[in-house]
């Protein structure tokens, strides 16, 4: 009390804080849907055996993605520090980290594709079909690595609302593709849905980052010209 003084209610800050909280909660919900809707719908629209095959393959994908998750967690606060002055700052950080994550994603995908035949020897012959599923999903670590750094670039620069809108759109697309493809192609339909939604989400996030960056550069140039 003596150091900080009497607490005061800053009513003017409640609305923007609640709005940001809403954006973050929507983003997390959409991310959960993107990660799990394929497995849930596969269990509902196809056979349980197909669900087990796909879920086992995706679990291995998740394990391969752990190093990138660690890098994302370690750098998350830094994106806010760099992005405080604009998206150029957070983008510069992404330019340093995303090539590392992208190269790892490519290496992990290649490693998963090559080592896939070893899976039945580890978890049993009943999961021999996991070999094909794992090879189908091998590009996912690269897609996720690249999209998360673009997403954190947006969040760090104060564009969480735009990030959330892309996540929601991707979740809706994922749901609709699964609804269409799973009854026709079982787990392969779920794999196609994941590959399509993840790749489009990656491209959309980076395109948005580029557009916002160009707008910021243009505004900065106009401001400099007006000062002269």
Brief descriptors of the model:
single chain, 228 residues, mainly alpha, elongated
Largest sheet: none
| SSE series | HHHHHHHHH
- Helix-strand makeup class: mainly alpha
Instruction: Give the number of helices.
Output: 9
Helix content: over 70%
Tell me the β content. under 5%
Q: Termini distance?
A: 49 Å
Query: What would you call the shape?
Result: elongated
Low-confidence segments, given as residue ranges, are none
Structural domain count: 1
Q: Rg from C-alpha positions?
A: 21 Å
Count of distinct strands: 0
User: What is the arithmetic mean of pLDDT?
Assistant: 91
Layout of secondary structure:
Layout lengths: L10 H35 L2 H17 L1 H18 L3 H29 L3 H5 L6 H8 L2 H17 L3 H26 L1 H41 L1
Helix pairs in contact: 1-2, 1-8, 1-9, 2-6, 3-4, 3-7, 4-6, 4-7, 7-8, 7-9, 8-9
What does this structure look like?
This protein is mainly alpha-helical. It has one domain. The chain contains nine helices and no strands. The chain has helices at residues 11-45, 48-64, 66-83, 87-115, 119-123, 130-137, 140-156, 160-185, 187-227. Helix 2 crosses helix 6 (130-137), helix 3 packs parallel to helix 7 (140-156) and helix 7 runs parallel beside helix 9 (187-227). The longest helix has 41 residues, at 187-227. The radius of gyration is 21 Å and the shape is elongated. The model has no long low-confidence stretch (mean pLDDT 91).
